[in-house]
């Protein structure tokens, strides 16, 4: 277990959590989510009248005593879900204290672990050398170390926008979790595609405290982390007011897109991971 991303004390606290989704699956392997199929799990779903050939062990004799007809019990079969976690690995994520990249990695590990506990299949998607990189179909607690190892090897130095690459491959119906600072012009295009791919979409918007509440003042030279272009700026009170308005507009556009496509949305500051989980992800309904 990685002591950097997720420690044993936190692991124990995660045992009682699950990834919240209204997802109902039509088909798939046995798992921890409810399916439209009727099977033989322990959760009761409905009755139907007995017909020749049905398993007589499923006859409800209490119903027979009441209605003088034979009914069998139907149960909701549980299916595993596909959980796709998209981690933005562009250079802008490698900023802040702690860095957004580290917080994003921690959140991905937490969601991955909670999903595995729920018997879901977890895949991680990132960008590497301007292409979509991934590790797929991780299921079972014994493979969690493999997932963490992959996350720990991520290098947040890409210039290729992850959101340009998502529509390059199909995805099985499931849950898609996006972890990014959303510094992209392709966010809605990617969300629209994932929605078309029958995904329940969760957007975890990671911004640093410095980006949300900058405390710079005076003459500052800013360097674009991705283009390396520099710009000299004199920061005054008026500058900060204008920045706040621009930030509000930026956040509003992201939220409106999420609302349009029915996504869960959560804005995350780079903070302690337990604060993020128990005061944010649970409060916003992403975890429960």
Automatic annotation (TrEMBL):
Segments forming domain DUF58: 46-236
Top-level taxon of the source organism: Bacteria
InterPro entries per record: DUF58 (IPR002881)
Protein name as annotated: DUF58 domain-containing protein
């Amino acid at each position: 277990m990685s002591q950097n991303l997720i420690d044993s004390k936190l692991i124990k606290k995660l045992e009682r959590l699950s990834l919240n989704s209204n997802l109902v699956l039509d088909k798939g392997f046995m798992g921890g989510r409810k399916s439209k199929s009727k099977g033989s799990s322990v959760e009761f779903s409905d009755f139907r009248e007995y017909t020749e050939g049905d398993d007589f062990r499923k006859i409800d004799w209490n119903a027979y005593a009441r209605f003088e007809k034979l009914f069998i019990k139907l149960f909701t079969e549980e299916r595993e879900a596909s959980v796709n976690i998209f981690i933005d690995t562009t250079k802008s994520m490698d900023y802040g204290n702690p860095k957004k990249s580290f917080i994003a990695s921690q959140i991905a590990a937490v969601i991955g672990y909670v999903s595995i506990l729920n018997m879901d299949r977890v895949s991680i998607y990132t960008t590497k050398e301007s292409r979509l990189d991934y590790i797929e179909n991780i299921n079972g607690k014994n493979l969690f170390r493999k997932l963490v190892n992959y996350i720990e090897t991520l290098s947040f130095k890409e210039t290729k926008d992850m959101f340009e690459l998502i529509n390059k491959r199909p995805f099985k119906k499931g849950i898609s979790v996006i972890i990014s600072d959303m510094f992209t012009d392709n966010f809605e295009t990617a969300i629209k595609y994932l929605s078309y791919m029958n995904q329940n979409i969760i957007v975890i918007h990671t911004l640093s405290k410095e980006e949300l509440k900058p405390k710079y003042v005076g003459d500052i030279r800013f360097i674009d982390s991705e283009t390396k272009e520099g710009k000299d700026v004199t920061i005054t009170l008026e500058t900060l007011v204008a920045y706040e308005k621009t930030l509000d507009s930026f956040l509003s556009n992201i939220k409106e897109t999420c609302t349009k496509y029915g996504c869960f949305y959560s804005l995350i500051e780079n903070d302690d991971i337990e604060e993020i989980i128990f005061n944010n992800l649970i409060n916003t309904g992403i975890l429960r």
